[in-house]
Amino acid sequence: MRSELYIDGQWVKPAKGGTCEVINPATEEVIHRIAAATAEDVDLAVKAARRAFDRDGWPKLTGARRAGYLRAIADGIRARQAEIARLEVLDNGKPFPEADWDVADAAGCFDFYAGLAEQLDNNPEEAIALPDARFTSKAVREPIGVAGAIIPWNYPLLMAAWKVAPALAAGCTVVLKPAELTSLTALELAAVADEAGLPAGVLNIVTGAGSIAGQAIIDHRQVDKLAFTGSGPVGSKIMAAAARDIKRVSLELGGKSPFVVFEDADIDKAVEWIMFGIFWNQGQVCSATSRVLVHEAIYGRLLERLVEETNRIKIGNGLDEGTLLGPLVSKRQYDQVVAAIEGARKAGATVACGGTRPEGIDRGFYLRPTVLTDVPLDSDAWKEEIFGPVVCVRSFKTEEEAVNLANDSRFGLAAAVMSKDDARAERVAAAFRAGIVWINCSQPTFTEAPWGGYKESGIGRELGRWGLDNYLETKQITRFA
Ligand code: TAP
C-alpha cells in the first residue's frame, strides 16, 4: 500500500508531514496511513501540471502518442486487476466481484479514451461556411489546460478513471484528489501511470482532506478546469470558487432517482432490477433508483416479493465468497443512513424490512438492506438522497401520476421505467426530467454513453465523446482574403 503523494513524477512526503488513517469498514481497524496534503503540496502539484502543460509539451503530442500512454495504463491496471480490486474492498467495503468489475471498467475507460485521443488527430479542422466570401474560417479543438479533479469514495478507482482518462486524452494535465476515506487505489493508478512512462507532471495525485487539499485545488488560480463528483453542497462551493476566476466546471452530484413499474411488468424481473438499482454498492450510488413507484394493481404482490428477496441478501465482509452486501464506507455514513431511516419512521413511514444492524455481526459498518413504505411525500426520506441501501416504495394509479411523482424532485440524475408496452415505456422515458433513463432495467452503465444530470444533479456530461468535450476549448480562426 502506498502512502505518499505523487507529484511531478515523484513519490513525496507532504510538506507538513500530516497523515490520515485508512480504516477497513468491514472490521473498523486502522490498516494504513496516507499523506495529508496541504495547500503547499497542492501548489507544487499544480505547478508541475502547469509545466507539463505549458512547457513540456503534453498537449502538443499527437493524439496517437497520448493514446499509447492511455493504453499502457489500461494494460497496467489489468495486469494487477485482482490486487487492485482487493485494495478497493479493504478501503471501501464493497464485495470483491463488484470491485473487480470496477477495476476492469476503469481499464476499459482508459482504452476507450485512447480511441478518442486518436480520433482527435483524424478530425480535420472544421471549415465554417461564412456569408462573406472574402473570409474563411475554421474551428479547432484544444485542451483547456490544468484540470483539478475531485472525486468521492463510492467508486474510488472508477471515478478517477472517468476524470483522468478523458482529461489526458484531450491533452490536459491533471491534479487529482481522491476522497480521504478511499485513496489507496488512486495511488495505485499513479504507480501504474508511472510504470507506463507517463511524463512527469502530467498526472499528480494529492491525498488528504477535502476542506484542505480539495479547497486548495479549487482556490488555485493556475487551475483552468474543475471536475467534481460528490455531494451538492460541495458542488455549490466548487461553482462559487470557480466563479471568481471563471474556471470551467463539470459537476456530477447526487440524485433521488425514480423507478416506475407498470402493471404489465414481470414481477420477478422487476424485483431483480429494483434490488440491483438500490442495493448494489450498498446503495452508495449517485444514480441509485431509491424511489420506486409501482402500479397499484401489482403493488402488494411486488412488495411482498421485494421484502422476501431483500431479507435473503447475504451480508458480510466483501472479501468473503458469496457476499452481496458489504459494510457502508464509514461510521459517519452509517450514522447518517441510520438517522435517515429513523427520520422516515418519525415522519410516519413503515420499515417493511431492514433498518437495523444484521444480527451476529458486531464490528464493521453493516446495515441490513431496508425497504420503506408509506413514506410521506414531503418527508426527507422521500426527497433527499440517503446514499445507503434504503428504498422507498409507493403505489400509483395512472401514468400521469407516476410521471408527476417521478419528476417532483430537485434532482434529475437518472430514472427508470418497466413495462411490456414499448410505446408507454418510450413515452414515460421522454417525459422523465433526468439525464440518464433506463427502460426495463436500472443502472447499466457504459463508457460510450453520456452520464450526468438535469437540475441539481449536476452540470455537463461525463463518458462517451461528451466526456472529452469537458476538457476541450473551441477556437475559431478566421482569415481575410
Ligand atoms: P463530499 O463531501 O461531496 O466529498 C466528495 C469529494 O469532495 C471528496 O474528495 C471530498 O474530500 C471533497 N471535498 C469535500 N469538501 C471539499 C471542499 N471544501 N473543497 C474541495 N473538495 C472538497 O461527499 P461526502 O462527504 O463524501 O459524502 C456526503 C454525502 O454526499 C453522501 O452522504 C452522499 O449523499 C453524497 N455523495 C454523493 C456522491 C455522488 S457520486 N453523487 C458521492 C459521494 C457522496 P474528503 O472526502 O477527502 O474530505
Protein model, in words:
Belongs to the aldehyde dehydrogenase family. Pathway: Amine and polyamine biosynthesis; betaine biosynthesis via choline pathway; betaine from betaine aldehyde: step 1/1. This is Aldehyde dehydrogenase family protein. Residues 11-477 form the Aldehyde dehydrogenase domain. Pfam families: Aldedh. The protein has 481 residues and is α/β, with parallel strands linked by helices. The protein contains 15 helices and 22 strands. It has helices spanning 39-54, 63-79, 81-92, 96-122, 156-170, 184-195, 210-219, 232-245, 267-279, 299-312, 331-347, 380-383, 399-407, 422-431, 464-469, and strands at 5-7, 10-12, 19-24, 29-35, 126-128, 135-143, 146-150, 173-177, 203-205, 225-229, 248-252, 258-261, 291-295, 350-353, 370-373, 390-396, 411-412, 414-418, 436-439, 454-455, 458-459, 472-480. The chain has a 7-stranded mixed sheet with strand order 14-15-16-13-12-18-19, with helices on both faces. β1 and β2 form a beta hairpin. α2 packs antiparallel against α4 (96-122). The chain is globular and about 70 Å long. The mean pLDDT is 97. The chain binds 7-thionicotinamide-adenine-dinucleotide phosphate. 7-thionicotinamide-adenine-dinucleotide phosphate binds at residues 150-154, 177, 179-181, 209-211, 214-215, 218, 229-231, 234, 237, 253-254, 286, 336, 385, 387.
Q: List bound small molecules.
A: 7-thionicotinamide-adenine-dinucleotide phosphate
- Count of DSSP H/I helices: 15
What does the overall shape look like?
globular
Strands, total number? 22
> What is the rounded Rg?
23 Å
| Spatial strand sequence of the major β-sheet | 14-15-16-13-12-18-19
Q: What ranges have pLDDT less than 50 throughout 5 or more consecutive residues?
A: none
Distance from N terminus to C terminus (CA atoms, Å) equals: 62 Å
What structural class results from the helix and strand content?
Answer: alpha/beta
Task: Report the portion of residues in β strands.
Answer: 15-25%
Mean model confidence by pLDDT:
97
